[in-house]
Amino acid sequence: MKHNSIVPKHISLGVLGLALMAIHAFIVLPVLQASVL
Q: What are the angstrom distances between the C-alpha of 18 and each of 4, 12, 21, 35?
C-alpha cells in the first residue's frame, strides 16, 4: 500500500514540475523577446 501511495506522488510532482517549466517558458520567452526588441 505504501508503494502505491508513493508512486502517484512522484508522478504528480513530475507533472507539476513540467507545468511550472512550461509556465516559466511562456512567461520568460515573451519578456526576453520584448526586452531585445
A: 22, 10, 5, 25
Residue type, 36: V
Question: In the numeric block, which cell numbers belong to residue 7?
Answer: 508512486
Mean pLDDT in consecutive groups of 10 residues from the start of the chain, 37 residues: 68 91 93 87
The whole domain housing 33 covers 1-37
Quickly tell me which residue has 502505491 as its cell. Answer: 4
Angle at 30 between CA 26 and CA 32, to 5 degrees: 120
pTM of the full predicted structure?
0.55
Structural domains of the chain, count: 1
